[in-house]
Write a structure and sequence with these properties.
This protein is of the alpha/beta class. 32% of the residues lie in helices and 21% in strands. The chain contains ten helices and nine strands. Strands 2-3-1-4-5-6 form a six-stranded mixed β-sheet, sandwiched between helices. A three-stranded mixed β-sheet has the order 7-8-9.
Length: 323
Amino acid sequence: MQDTERITEVPGGAGNKAGFVTIIGRPNVGKSTLMNRLIGQKIAITSYKPQTTRKRIRTVFTEDRGQIVFLDTPGIYRGANRLGEYMYRAALGTLNEVDLVLWLVTPSASVSEEDRAIARLLTEVKTPVLLVINKTDTVKKEAILPVIAAYSGLGGEENGEERFLDILPVSARTGDGVGELLDCVFRHLPEGQPFYDEDTVTTETEREIAAELIREKALRLLQEEVPHGIAVTIEQFKYRTRKDGREICDIEASVICEKNSHKGIIIGRGGAMLGRIGSAARAEIEDLLQTQVNLKLFVKVRKDWKDNDLQLKSFGYDMKELR
């Protein structure tokens, strides 16, 4: 990570650890949920839909032992359009740039073809890997051992378990095993000074997080009615002081979709659906900003935006940044 300057003081004195850790895995294995749990705050959006995360999201965890900079990535899946290609590159591009890889899988003793493909990719990088079996709250404890055996065998008889620094079962949803995971990460990070001030939680801006929170609420409320192809842009984000002296943040945002028929569904009868999306998003944005929010939402159609590099760049998905 050559673009980041370390700060000069280390919380807790000499011998502290500091490093970058990427979280990878196929879509919908709980990467964003785990990252939010690790840092103790919601930064990355989540939904039951695969490929909710589209960009690398950087968060920072600092304590007496040192500092971990986590990179949440899109699910490793090569989509059929330019947005899918961007997401694929965003995920793979971190593997050689970090100190440690957390590979998330789900507790199934039957290894999917997608996970086998990821295992092959990992053999081509030198970065050490921790295998994390997530969603352990969905199975009985005795079901975990066969999963460990199945994934340990991916390296073949020659490598076996040694291909992973460790294999750890966790539940990002309940927090079970997350403390042990943090302990393990700190053990394997290099000594060094922190990259960010100890008060930093993320490098994402308030504007970027607000846009993602709106997109999350749209994904959750629309369910299967509108395909995954929506984006959110912030047109205005401005703080002001009201006459009564209280602060308020005025936000104007546009939900981007691909078809006029989708626009009607997002707006809903009499604007009901758009109102529900706005109300749900406003509550979380106010919690984030710790101030009152005046949120106005609009819906715009941008046909085939997922295959248009210029449109993708305007929505924050710049292919050139990944080269």
